[in-house]
Write a structure and sequence with these properties.
single chain, mainly alpha, 4 strands
Length: 330
């Protein structure tokens, strides 16, 4: 653990946090490339589109940052998002006709999604810490469970939000404040709160300590099980927040909702400089990583040099390079 702490200090030499700055330099280079390829890239409409599309994965990735820094992994977030969206839609549709106010119906639906997210995160965390099962196994299992349940609830089809509620809920995704879309403001608020919790509180220091060396953290009187469980609860909460922003976009959910979101979230965390083995990382690096992934897709759409169908391949190459560079830092 001491070696990792020293490495962390090295990355902050001269008051510069290279862990955050390195992915930011990569993002700037990507912006320059996008501008050269197509001047439309820097238009406000396109930039807001890139940032808005980054919000779903970005919010989930912020939660994944806690889990990965603590030495865990969560492969179930995409399926969890599908289940939460499905249950949220069913719940709100059931309230139509029983609750006169559309706003109250939406607020109750949001509350349901938050509670479900906390419960799903706690389920993963308790199974890992109390059941002493590897995170990969537990979240791989819940990945299948969550996906199957939402497919069952949708009877193999699609769950659609009541048409009347769509109009009332629509501004959460398509509305804006002072010209800035609400999803971007929500993403920024989540990142700020998460940054304070992770980098300015005792809980955050415990997360880093556990990820650096769980055994030493346990000897230091840190309640490792409780802290690790809470990181999964935070992950579940972030998935719920992403779902709250996602549902008004399409007004539907199915068994195919959120497919591969878990890989994109993990990719955003790794690209942002967080070590896959835990012990180091930064929320703002994850934010930059999420924006980079969205930007890559946008740049590919603006050029004919590389097919947009190769977006996943480009992201895969970047992930491998990012992990290789992390290895080089050690």
């Amino acid at each position: 653990m001491q070696q990792r702490l020293e490495a962390g200090a090295d990355r902050r030499r001269n008051g510069v946090n290279w862990q955050v700055l390195t992915p930011l330099v990569g993002l700037i280079a990507l912006f320059v490339l996008g501008t050269i390829i197509n001047p439309v890239f820097l238009s406000p409409i396109n930039l807001f589109n890139v940032l808005t599309r980054a919000c779903f994965i970005g919010i989930i990735a912020v939660g994944a940052t806690f889990v990965i820094i603590a030495g865990g992994i969560d492969l179930s977030v995409g399926s969890m998002a599908a289940l939460l969206a499905g249950v949220m839609i069913i719940g709100m549709n059931m309230l139509v006709g029983n609750v006169d106010s559309a706003l109250l119906t939406i607020l109750l639906g949001i509350l349901l999604a938050l509670l479900m997210g906390l419960a799903a995160g706690a389920l993963n965390g308790l199974a890992i810490t109390r059941g002493r099962i590897e995170p990969f196994i537990v979240t791989l299992g819940t990945l299948g469970i969550f996906r199957s349940v939402v497919t069952y609830l949708a009877d193999g089809g699609t769950l659609s939000l009541d048409f009347g509620l769509r109009g009332a809920y629509r501004p959460v995704y398509y509305g804006h404040f002072l010209g800035i879309p609400y999803p971007i403001l929500i993403f920024a608020a989540v990142a700020i709160v998460a940054s304070v919790v992770l980098h300015r509180t005792r809980f955050g220091r415990y997360v880093y300590a556990i990820g650096s060396n769980e055994q030493v953290a346990s000897y230091s009187a840190i309640d490792v099980r409780r802290i690790k469980t809470l990181t999964y609860v935070i992950q579940g909460l972030c998935v719920a927040l992403a779902v709250i922003v996602y549902v008004p976009r399409l007004g539907s959910a199915s068994g195919s909702t959120g497919i591969l979101w878990e890989l994109e979230a993990i990719a955003a965390v790794i690209i942002g400089g967080t070590a896959l083995k835990g012990g180091s990382g930064h929320v703002w690096g994850t934010v930059v990583g999420a924006v980079m992934l969205s930007t890559i897709g946008n740049v590919l759409n603006l050029t004919d040099v590389i097919s947009p169908y190769l977006n996943g391949a480009v992201q895969g190459v970047i992930i491998i390079v990012a992990v290789f560079l992390q290895r080089g830092r050690k």
